[in-house]
Amino acid sequence: MEHITLLLAIVVVTALVFDFTNGFHDTANAMATTISTGAMKPKAAVAMSAVLNLVGAFLSVEVAKTISKGLVDETGIQPEVILAALVGAILWNLLTWLVGLPSSSSHALMGGLIGATVASIGVSGVNGGVVLTKVLIPAVAAPVVAGVAAMVATRLTYKVGANIDQKTGRKGYKAGQIASAGLVSLAHGTNDAQKTMGIITLALVAGGALAPGSNPPVWVIVSAGLAIALGTYLGGWRIIRTMGKGLTDLQPQQGFAAQTGAATVILASSHLGFSLSTTHVCSGAVMGAGLGRKGGVVRWSTATRMFVAWGLTLPAAGLVAALAELVARQGDWGVAVVAAFLVGSSAAIWFVSRRQVVDHTNVNETGDGAEAAGEPEPAGVVTTAIAAVTPPPAGTVPADPADDAALKTTIPAPAAASGAAPTATV
């Protein structure tokens, strides 16, 4: 093993903590729709996802190379910079997990790394071309591509399965959904686990334990894979609830289409070395699948909060990381202060989360606010437009007796047998 100092050891452990938070933060990407449609039991779903995340971590190192050799100037930064970057990323992951928002762990890490690097050596230490082509452009394009693909796949799925027995079809799609969820988990391991491999490798290079340009050592690959698998197994139930129930109501056909589309986009990006946000891809696919079903809707208030979190991820994590770097550079006492701040803040967030526990026993229940009180979310513009052009299925009986009464008041009563003229009820 490479020669590792105490500071490098602290950085490596902190990186693995980030990897752990990445695992439970992003479990929803693979398993939220599978759990919400009842295709798998919650605990079985996260266990399968954890195993496949571990397997995926060994399939490629292209994304790790993007992080360790492309995003910032690896020869101009110190281990303190990596530590500060991880602090920003971990705290953003925990805050968004607390409020149940599926934000990007990948962008939190990259935002932290960029912010800490700028605070340490200036803007020149960041490779702007790599940030633009392999981070920002995929961040915008990936959810759109995944959403369109899932919407088209959903419509084709319903069209192809129109003549299939409903009960048989649901069983088949649930089986397909389990397979596609496994594919997403595998893809998540090939993409997200590598980001921690990349950051640890970058720290080892910065500390002089590895030569510049080195690939991740085997022990780095193994430890990163195990950390993300453990986090995945514990399950980020708050975010699973939001993605599975908060964005839209999915049927097995939609879940299958969403996960298949997401897995395709993630695997393709991993092959190309794009440090893609699996959260953006999977969220876009879920929304696309929601709009792909006739009469399906997306809860745009939840989606809007999610979009705001996406926009804040890079600058928020970067700001915290920059401040942490300014303290950490002061020497051993600075590193100790930053580490203590991370531990204290993480503990505080965990204690707050205990006030309202979300776990595998209640993950499929409705969330807070209006939905918890039994009040549906007000229909937005898109939802209203879709409802206006979507006729109800033939033979549908109004669910609300009041609707039935209102219908009767607008239809003339049938003529009596004696031939009397019909009279309209007012």
Automatic annotation (TrEMBL):
Pfam families xrefs: PHO4
Gene Ontology BP terms: phosphate ion transmembrane transport
Record's subcellular location: Membrane
UniProt keywords, alphabetically: Membrane, Phosphate transport, Transmembrane, Transmembrane helix, Transport
Source superkingdom: Bacteria
Principal cellular location given in the protein's record: membrane
InterPro entries registered for this protein in UniProt: Phos_transporter
UniProt membrane topology term: Multi-pass membrane protein
A Gene Ontology molecular function term of the record: phosphate transmembrane transporter activity
Keyword Transmembrane: yes
Transmembrane segments: 6-24, 44-61, 81-101, 108-130, 136-158, 218-240, 307-327, 333-352
Gene Ontology terms: cellular component: membrane
Stated family: Belongs to the inorganic phosphate transporter (PiT) (TC 2.A.20) family.
Annotated protein name in UniProt: Phosphate transporter
Organism name: Streptomyces roseolilacinus
